[in-house]
Design brief:
The protein is of the alpha+beta class. Helices cover about 15% and strands about 20% of the residues. It contains four helices and six strands, in the order ααβαβαββββ. Strands 1-6-2-3-4-5 form a six-stranded antiparallel sheet, covered by helices on one side. It is globular and about 40 Å long.
């Protein structure tokens, strides 16, 4: 296979999962963009997910969506700015999560972590067709007008129907802290 500088985010443009679904924006309270995004997906409250998902582990997000017959499917990305994925994002014309670094300074993203493991902040939003549902503002905005386009990509997932509905959802349990 030849070297390809660009990979499409989703290979089959005929796949439709949530194109005609309606999602209601919710505003996060405190640093809870992940739980608020999951709440927007499921029509529940952010508290449904607080304390049960690891904000840095998308596998736990996907497991938490199982009762609603949803799961997250990884889309191949790198750290380029989201605007460079825009055409591909819009061509999917369905539902995705976009995670991006809060800083515009690439050197902050690439620096070594501090003593606590912190590098830099990030944020997650929903992209439904051509509209961003942003938990920071609690509003829906056309993607072409949203600040995320100038931010560097952290992760992109397509929200899909759960493949194996007979499998039981993973029960999440808190792991002991290294400081305990």
């Amino acid at each position: 296979m030849p070297y390809d500088l660009n990979s499409t985010l989703w290979p089959n443009r005929e796949d439709v999962f949530f194109r005609d679904h309606t999602f209601i924006p919710q505003r996060q309270s405190g640093p809870h963009c992940v739980s608020t995004t999951l709440a927007m997906l499921t029509g529940t409250s952010p508290e449904t997910f607080q304390g049960t998902v690891n904000t840095q582990d998308p596998r736990s997000w996907s497991a938490a969506l199982a009762p609603w017959d949803m799961q997250l499917a990884y889309c191949p990305t790198d750290a380029r700015k989201l605007k460079f994925y825009l055409e591909d994002l819009l061509s999917v014309d369905d539902l995705l999560t976009l995670s991006y670094y809060a800083t515009e300074d690439a050197s902050e993203i690439l620096r070594d972590p501090d003593a606590d493991g912190w590098v830099t902040g990030s944020h997650i939003v929903l992209l439904h067709r051509d509209t961003i549902l942003d938990p920071a503002s609690g509003e829906a905005t056309l993607v072409l007008l949203h600040e995320c386009l100038e931010r560097h990509t952290k992760r992109i997932f397509r929200v899909v129907k759960r493949e194996d509905k007979t499998a039981r959802p993973v029960q999440l349990k808190q792991e002991p802290s290294m400081n305990s």
